[in-house]
Amino acid sequence: MSGLDKMRSRILEEAEQSAKEIIAKAEADARAVMKAAEEEACAEAAKIREKAEQNAADYAGRAASSADMRRKQANLAAKQEVISTVLGKAYDTVMNLDVNAYFDLLEKLLEEHALPEKGEICFSQRDLERMPEGFTGKIKTIAAAKGGSLTLSDEARPIGGGFLLVYGGIEENCTIKAVFDSKREELSDRVNRLLFG
């Protein structure tokens, strides 16, 4: 083999060796890049998974809170409906008391609301027609005990039950509905405690 062939053979061997080293280094670099990319992808996937789990937990918490609030609102609405029904039945019961019990109640209302002034008391047509004998005397006695006087109006008023007191052109509403309305909150609280503890 000539010197030239030897030289060419050595250059080819060195080139081949150099190419193998370059390829080995490139493969090692590629593996390192792939490993780093894989680790980064795993870390990113873990972050995404963690965030998704947190979002799911937050959503579940909000959904549970919302469901609890809707349950409480429905419960409150049901209680208010029951209380309203009870108060409506109580009102109907008062309006349908027998005549003596009804006018005894009106007598107590008059004792509470009569003023020490001269005035007039007005009833519904129904109450004027069924007023017990001697009730006008009780009206006068109660008014006198308060230092005033009341005359019975012959004119019926469009009220359900109870009466109106008129002093100097100013009316005081003492109807059964007005009494119920003025004490609605107190009565609602009592019914709530009785029914729901």
Automatic annotation (TrEMBL):
Name of protein: V-type proton ATPase subunit E
Role, per record: Produces ATP from ADP in the presence of a proton gradient across the membrane.
Family, as annotated: Belongs to the V-ATPase E subunit family.
GO cellular component: proton-transporting two-sector ATPase complex, catalytic domain
Superkingdom to which the source organism belongs: Bacteria
Gene3D superfamilies: ATP synthase, E subunit, C-terminal, F1F0 ATP synthase subunit B, membrane domain
InterPro entries for the chain: ATPase_E_C, ATPase_V1_Esu
Pfam families for this protein: vATP-synt_E
Gene Ontology biological-process entries: proton motive force-driven plasma membrane ATP synthesis
A GO molecular function held by the record: proton-transporting ATP synthase activity, rotational mechanism
HAMAP family: ATP_synth_E_arch
Keywords: ATP synthesis, Hydrogen ion transport, Ion transport, Transport
Provenance organism: Candidatus Mediterraneibacter stercorigallinarum
